[in-house]
Input
Amino acid sequence: MINPLNKQRICILYDLLNKIPLAMRMTLLLLCLFAFQLHSELTYSQQTKISLNMRNSSIEKILQTIEEKSEFYFLYNSKLIDVDRKTDIRVKEESIASILNRLFNKEDVEYEVQGTQIILHPKEMNRVAPELVENVDQQQKRRVSGIVQDEHGEPIIGANVMEKETSNGTITDINGSFTLQIEENAILQVSYIGYESVEIRVDNRSTVNIQLKEDLQELDQLVVVGYGVQKKANVVGSISQISSEQLENRPVTALSNALAGQMPGVTLIQRSGKPGASPGELRVRGVGSFGASPDALILIDGIPGNINDVSPEEVASISVLKDAASAAIYGARAANGVILVVTKSGSEGRIKVGYNGYGGFVRAATLPEYLLSWEYALAYNEASGTEIYTPEMIQKYKNGSDPDNYPNSNWVKDLLGGRGFQTGHDLTLTGGTNMNNYYLALGYLSQDGIIEKNNYSRYNVRANMTSTLTNKLKLTTRIAGVVSEIKEPAVPGGKATTGMDAIFSNAFRFPSIYAGKLSNGDYGIGPEGNGTSAAWLESASFYEEPMWRANFNANLDYNPIKDLTLSAIAGYNFSQKETKLFRSTFRLDDNMTMAPSSLEQEGVRLVYKTFQATANYSKEFVGHTIGALAGYSFEQQEQRTMKGMRDKFPGNDLPYLDAGSPDNQQTSGGGYNWTILSVFGRFKYDYLNRYLLEATVRRDGSSRFPPTKKYGTFPSFAAGWRISEEQFMQSTSSWLTNLKVKGSWGILGNQNIGNYPWQSMYNLGQNYAIGGVFNQGSAMATYSDPTIHWESTRTTDAGVEILLWKGLLSLDASYFYRHTTNILYKPTSSVSSVLGMNLSEMNTGSLKNTGWEFDISHRKLLGDFEYNISGNFTIIRNKVMDLGVGNVQQPNGLIGNGSDLFIGYPMQSYYGYKTDGVFLDQNDIDAWYEKNDQSSLMPKNSARPGDVRYVDIDGDGKVTAAMDRVILGSQIPTYTFAFNIGAKYKRFDTSLFFQGVAGVKGRLTNYAGFAFYNLGSIQRWMWEDRFDSENPKRYPAYPRLQILGNSEGNNGYLSDLWAQNASYLRLKNIQVGYTLPTKLLNMWHINNLRMYISVEDPATWTKYPKGWDPEANTGGDHYPRLATYTIGVNLKF
Amino acid sequence: MKMKKIYNFTLILIMSYCFSSCVGELEVSPLTSLDQDVVWSNEANAMTVLMGCYKGNIPYNNTGFESDWLSYSGLMFLEFASDNAFDRRATTTGNSSLHKLSDGTLNASNGSINNYWRNAYLKIARCNRFIENVDKVPTQQPVIDRMKSEARFLRAVQYFYLSQYFGDVPLVTNTLTPEEANLVEKNTKAQIILFVEKELNEISEILPRYKDLKASELGRSTAQVSLAFLGRLYLADKQFTKAAQAYKKIIDWGDNQIDPDYQSIFLPANKHSNENIFSTQYLESLAGNGLTQHALPAISKGWHLICPLGSLFEAYDYVDGTPFSYENSLYDPTDLSKNRDPRLRYTLLVNNADFAGNKYICHPDSSRSLDQLGAGKQTTYTGFGLRKYFDEGYSGNLLQYGANTVVVRYAEVLLGYLEAELEAGTVITRQLLDQTINLVRGRATVNMPPVIETDRDKLRPILRNERRVELALEGHRYWDLLRWGIAHEVLNGDFYGAPFPGAKNMRKKGGQADPNDRWFVITRNFRNPQDYQWPIPQSEQDINPNLR
Output
């Protein structure tokens, strides 16, 4: 129960605290005054009087009682001091010295009081504290001293130095040095947590310097699992975990971003770089459903939350429960994996202060390039087939002599090509006594977007406190608050599209022949008479989204008997979001003013409450360990919204609702509730750490299902065999550190659907105007299935873990098979619209995800040089098995919904035509139509050289939508991979992190994908690689140019020409750091100071159309992915 | 030990309390929806469902699409398939699903027919549900009868349009399950027509007359509008005598008159003129429409989707009653609306017209103008713009305009009546002309010379032209061309816009200048008989083989 080693370290740390100059101590003191309890003063031992009345109690018990009644705590080695001895004690208001004298015979035990800390040691041995050592009279022994260092030559403070086979020992001081009296021929054992222990023969030396190697063994590492932690060696499920180190120093604004590529089987698709945007598509082992949302369940300290509410700095670990065995404890919501985020907690010892700060800039990782205005004019003439732009006009565009009338605007470069400042600061304080400790974090982040007036800022505060109330009762309190705000520019009144998206999409859209700002200060009115993105950006219009979040949870652990822990968690999350969209009036020129102004303001309040109780029992018999967990959980969330609108503001100075015209004020409001009620249990058994068994069951009740279907039960079983622990494997133990095979099976649920999916209701808001009055209307607009129940996923998992040469090389491989059935799907495109209603979810269809995950890591030290290489690789095959109601046989034999779901193919498929280049000339057209009559797509008389040749698949001579479309690929990547290379040389460290996907398709549409789309512009690659009638090519990258309306035209049908290869390899992060020498730092009382340069997302290699990120499946309203360049510093006191 | 027991006991107590009190929390109900039982428990709630039937998928405060045959976009945008107007979104390549209805490229994947189909059945389903349940409402029988008849009216209208465009469609008159919906079978066009005829006949006896509508009820269906649709049905089905009877009944009731002010009846101020028998209702700001955004010229920040064609422009007679020709001395290329039927000026914007305090300049050489034709701007593609429906003083949000979409007006009834009598073979008299066509063209603000032609075959083109001009851009023309069986004649060949004599920038067909210096727009190839009937949407055929 009391770890002597820890106590010794604490003793040393306490010493250190005493050595810190007073001024600094005072500063720290003031800094922390509000958060935690102070260390007692030295005189405490004299002032404190204790009363005890105990009969036949063990010494241990008595000491514990003293700890409970006072602030004293004891440090001793229970092997050296007989604390099991039973005695009586009856004292009233006596000093601690007096009590200790009563308890111990002075001949046997001595004690040392340091503040509130009391060290007990046997009389005959060296005292624990090194400065006491020399006072002891040890005539027959000789003295040895030395320094303990790590591989980098840094002193190790508090390492244990023992004379072998004796109780004689000491620990190292702040310089890593020790002095010990030893017998002749003694062997020294040196150990320190996290390092490999060494034994050294002293021989005749009087000085022994020892270097400890970091212990690369990961087997003792603790892995966070559902409702508990487990040793990695004993884990039988598939769990990936990353610790704070893998997140540190990455200048990511969103925690989700830091996860990309870190773990096999965990995929993040981030389609937008918008500051403060949602986390993107975070998927565990593929996409598990085409109906209910396939989002993983994210739990922050056991409570559902938004992963991006947590500052990366606050994270102790993130573990992802991927298979049924580990996730089933979360039952109904675990089908798509569970992500457990654990925030840091306090540690005993003096206050430790950490600071991490960085600053830098962001820019668009990639931007499309558009034609200059004179080139645009040429292209337009070519596309329209008429000379709209005469040579004189083109000349004026070219020479820039009349920029107001013949401008050359580069919207993308001018508006989106900029750099935004980004800075982040985190201050953490941690420390405490063995009774109370705390972790306090303050964070600030500010990220400017790549466009003016766009910023995301966030303030985080977190206090995690652990208090030992009695020796059986522990209270953990976590309080976190986040205040964030998104600021974006907006489009002034009068234009149909409103927000920043419109500014972006029109920057990608409007041709360069329109002027932004004119020489007289007016603004160009653009192609729609409503100005341009450049003008809107200068208006008083804005969008704001401030948000306030507070999360409280308290966790009470109670140990009524040994081996049993009863825990109760109560949590309360509150958030309030206010969105405010003000659209100003804006004068473009004398004739054109954008109007009317308007303001929309919406408040969204979210309250989440939970109560969870668990009982956890674990017992060790000889060789057998059993563990049992039983728990209960109640969760409830309610959301309420309130929205108000006014328009026609007298000016743009008062963007508050009251200032708007009272004649058109509108309000709306609503909300939802949901509740989940669960019981769960887990049983674990292992024999000799060799044979591991685990069984889990959870029963959930959800408000989202009809009364008779509310409850679902989710079981799982898992087994593991650590072959390397077997007797017969002893011969290999020198190199095979761990070999484990494991397998699991289980059923998991998914209920990520609307809140009221089964009730047949008349929805309000179907309003209609009669007699000049706007009347409330209602309609049963949705067909609901009153018998729906859980979607469930049956997961089978098999894996092997290999650890070689004590961690020099580790290899993990697993295979999984996830079969999702009763998918909660809205089979909209499978039900005739003759029904006249939308469809709510039904349990229909099934889906399979099978795959392999590989994880490999290697780490080696070569003198001053240390390197590590790790990589992961995942193959996921997604296959639709059945669509149930949606099984519609297409004329060409495929069974599916006719758009993106077909049996036997991955979901999110692209279904379109095969093409065979373009027509070269009229003869080609005639010949092609003879055999592949594509009139239904492109009437023959409209076909021109340069138009796409669609292939007749079924061989009937005609190309039709019904018969000649095929599956062209899916938006879900088949292969995802990442690798990380890190190296350290002396004080320098560097790392490179690559990540990529393959076997995936993407598609650009509308303004992004097509030239001259709806008044749109043309990108340079389209122009350069278009079909050119002067030099006709069969396979140009872009077919004949044509002026398009708001459809993509006869060449734009979804075909293999447009379902693009979206595979990529991305340099995700590159980092170089330098750690300052400890000696230097000691002068300033700094423990560690590291400076680094970090670049995030600087380069991507892909075949996707030039200028677009391969994860951007966009029509143009797209915020480009950001590349981040920062310089930062980590500081630890 | 005692303490321990107390701890345990307390914990168990808390847990069991929580458990027992929490089970009930699993029962939650939507916060902004009405339960089935509540809906039919009183008249006010039932009325909300009826409002939902009227609404169908007609959007408010938004730009619409083919969301309903009675929405502004659903109704007026069908003109894009006629010789009256060109969809700017079709640009010069014909890429507009509405344009494609009649240019020879209509197929089952056409987005517009899918929208019309889908939203028709959406409205039908709402009406069916209402009709099945409204008898439960505890209120007086006449109230129920009227409400039910309104739903039957709305449903019949949908079937009217379905029969006219798709022909054979499933006749669904009760609520369906998804399984049933996937197995419906087609009924013949004749069966649909029979159904619509029966329904409209019955409800025209139940629904109140126009004059009996209270001010607070304006916009609800009446006997007149039922009869007007019946008249249309008979005209299209060539049951001319019955058509005449239906129309005559409206005329004889005398609840509705020709409004002397042609222009005003389309504007918000006079939208309740009794000439407007039935309109889709909009309200400025709260329940507005996006016609302004869609169709205003660029100078007024609109998207100029509606580009009237030269063909329509040429349909307006000269003010003296002579048909338009470029050779006539009254022709003035500098002011195209000069000396013309005044309805031209009320309906179209021509180059140099004054509009909303600005000049509408669309001349292809006017490179300084926002509305310049042909330079790739968001402007007219024909040289004409739309003026009808627009209140030039409107300064509000362009998505929240308050003009109604007129579905049936008295002028159509008069012209329909004359057509029915004419086609039925009734002897045409001057008196009949004066009671119908001449009332329409003789209204104070139009004041065109009366038609005196009484020969059937000579009168027919005059009447058809009168109908085209009077009802221009109100959504009738395409249907008229189909039912008259002349679409393959009219919608084949080249279409031109406005004349711009001497313009430097001219869009010419194949480099050939037009003798009248008109801007070339596009060529249509209406297929006979294929394009007279819309195919059932491909997605519906894919799901239900019975619809193939």
Notes: The first helix of chain B runs from residue 2 to 23. Chain B is about 40% helix and 10% strand. Residues 175 and 216 of chain B are 31 Å apart (CA to CA).
